[in-house]
Design brief:
8 strands, alpha+beta, 8-stranded mixed β-sheet, disordered N terminus
Length: 250
Amino acid sequence: MDDVKEQAPRERGRTKGPPSKTGREIWLAPFLPSLVDVYLRSGASPLYCRLTTLFVDIAGSTSLLVRHPPETVLAIIQRFMRLVTEIALAHHGDVKDFEGDGALLYFGSAAHATQAALAIQAAFSYRRYEACEATDQVTPRMSLTVGDVVVGIVGSTMRQAIALVGRSVSVGARLLKQIPPGAIIASGELVEALRAEAPVLAEEFRLLDSACQVSGADGISVTTYVAPCPKPCGPDMSLTASAHRSHPWN
């Protein structure tokens, strides 16, 4: 990283234009999702695509602030987000946004998104098996939806970001609040996609509500399924014990 910082002034001295593609990737890759690169290269405005979105947050995060000082809670969130991000990237996904104690992840495949969600669920179930300290008792909630979205730039010339706009994104954000800690809620459309793409993964979900009224969504109802939180268990989880011991969360 120091090498990059030392080279930056020389790069700026050679040209008055924007940085080269290589320079842009060096500077932006850690901060912006790969969707940004797709958007910039496509030249399309807006960009239409079909994505699976995974919302994840920490259940009961408000109580953490009651019991612990802000710097302790920040450290918990940082470790939580690091693990969530690494699992998303390992399953061919990426992070659209971090906000508070939650994140919006996106994937090109329903199967990859579901594998990531189950891996996150398993990782924190394993943590509950190992952990004794209250600060380690972190439980995620997750929602999975799939649908057509529009990708575009929002903001001004001074500050810009990439937005994902679509019914599935909005529904996913609202469904997140309708499940108990540790569970994964999925739309019927997501489970149908799994039945075609990865039937074994579809079997992880059971019907929750055939006509779930989505809170605050103007009467929209969707079929929902749930993958309940597994009981805390040991090293036979899908993420191995050695992987957990080597992870910064531990």
